[in-house]
Amino acid sequence: MKVAPLAPAFGLRFEGVDVRSMSDSERREIIRAGNSAGVVHIPGQSLSEEEQLEFTRLYGRIRVLRVNRARNSRRLPGIVEISNVDADGNVVPPGSDMIRFSKGNMMWHSDYSYTADWAAQSILHALEAVSKGGETEWASTEAAYDALPEVEQARLSRLTATHDRFHSRIKNGFTDFTEEDYRLTPPVPHPLVTTHPVTGRKALLLGSHVSAIDGMSETETEALVAELTAHCCQPQFVYSHVWMPGDIIVWDNRSTLHRGRPADPTERRVMRRTAVFGEGVEGPEVQVVG
Ligand code: OGA
Ligand code: MN
């Protein structure tokens, strides 16, 4: 197994390994990287759904968001479909739910930040990739935090943000929420500056789900989120990934933000995502699998 940096500020790439048959030391290194490097790229894999779930369990307990079950019902529980291809294998039409969900993913976010125990690692496995565009970008919110002046770090450390699933969904034209949806994912508070439970490093927790920052008006909240997001997403803090079939990317939602980039919607882009629980309190919206 060979390891190399992914981007100047963060990230690692592991080559020459099959994640289905790792030695103990390879497994330890891959787990450590997933908890400290922000983004880990492992090319050349070919995992079944069950094998992806097994790989995901290296990082913790698998999470399932109950509210997404209907959309992902053709996959094993715990697998989220990130694709533009329907169950019959056809590319879906422009206005469909799958396309609207992928539009939501194009805003900078941290997966499941609208839950108390927002995801620690997420894992994407690419099955089919587009020939142009469709990259995923990650920004290191640790490197971005470190680069702030100390007074700004101190000011931000005193702030709490509300993360609301409906705030981001509404921006993407979703309105058909049920009572059950609201009951399962009520808005949750998170500190704006978080401390990584494994490395102890500080990071900014932002993203499209932030609906309010305490003590601020809506306009002030939006302005601060926009300013801090722009700071985090400067080129020196960003890694942009061009997908190849067989790629696995493990990322840490506690130290990065990410977003998808547009692609020709008639080209097939098929990926599977899994995620594990974070360190927070388990809420009613989630279910443990295996
Ligand atoms: C995700 C996500 C972005 C993309 O799967 O969590 O945000 O590029 N994906 O598909
Ligand atoms: Mn995401």
Polypeptide structure, described:
There is one protein chain. The protein contains eight helices and 17 strands. It has helices at residues 24-36, 49-56, 97-104, 141-146, 150-157, 165-171, 179-184, 218-232; strands at 2-5, 12-15, 39-42, 62-65, 80-83, 121-128, 136-140, 160-163, 188-191, 193-195, 202-204, 210-213, 238-241, 248-252, 256-260, 270-275, 286-289. The strands form five sheets. Strands 1-2-3-14-6-16-5 form a seven-stranded mixed β-sheet, with helices on both faces. Strands 13-7-15 form a three-stranded antiparallel β-sheet. The longest helix has 15 residues, at 218-232. The chain is globular and about 50 Å long. β1 (2-5) and β2 (12-15) form a beta hairpin. The protein is 24% helix and 26% strand. The chain binds N-oxalylglycine and manganese (II) ion. Manganese (II) ion is lined by residues 105, 109, 111, 258.
